[in-house]
């Protein structure tokens, strides 16, 4: 039976026995490795002879910026994991646990592949709650029998809490409720905090010393100096603060006046001006009716074998006269040669009346 050696700290063993007719062979080995060395003990009984051995191996590595450390034997490449000031943080190589950081927050990884991107990471859950972690994973490629420094920056967080009021134009304190507090944090930019109903605020990671603070709310702006004392602990209560440097006082906008619903006077209805009665357009002046005649001549070819000569064509005159009522009486006179009639009646006169207009 056997148990393999883990990549990080841990123990391994191997035990084998061969018992037969007149022959008993036994082999055994126990091995343990820590962060600064590896140790092994071996015992063999083969062919009636005993053999035992003890082994111990280790190394010393030094890296610029990372110090000098005791470690297990280094064969290819190594790395120094550093979590500044935080101990007992687990370190990993390719998701395999290697060990934990020591008193100074460092740990040596002695078996990295040279010229290959080895993935180093830490367990951020092991970092205390009052610290903030910047990175949790890095990829580094060390040279052959050389090392690299893997720094995982962490910073201790400190919360500054308190209450704030502003001195108004009349001297009475005003609570800048639901405003915003902005504090100049130097090279880190600005620390911001909303202001509660009672003037409460909370700022994070402010260095000890004086800082310029600005308050802005719907009533205006105010500036004062915020002094943060040097106190150990995750939270610091600075108590009640007063801002007397009012820069801009804004008057509250007046509430909108309710609209008086007064009935507007009804518009006076003036009688519409009477439209002039439509008058019939004057009748168009018509020219005096003057008879005119359209002479029409009808020519008829004589029949070839007519016993009697056909009467000669007589012109047809159509006089047109325009009457007063818009009608044109049309009188057609047809002149023919007189022919004796037995009855002695005169020739018939045909009249045709043509209306023009509506």
Task: Give a description of the structure.
The protein has four domains: 2-57; 60-156, Outer membrane usher protein FimD, plug domain (Immunoglobulin-like), CATH 2.60.40; 159-249, Immunoglobulin-like; 317-335 and 348-358. The protein contains no helices and 27 strands. The protein has strands at residues 2-3, 10-20, 23-34, 37-46, 49-57, 59-63, 67-71, 77-82, 90-93, 96-100, 106-112, 118-122, 131-133, 137-140, 147-151, 154-156, 159-167, 173-174, 180-184, 190-194, 200-204, 209-217, 220-228, 235-243, 246-249, 327-332, 350-355. The chain is rod-shaped and about 135 Å long. Residues 286-301, 310-318 and 352-358 have low confidence and may be disordered.
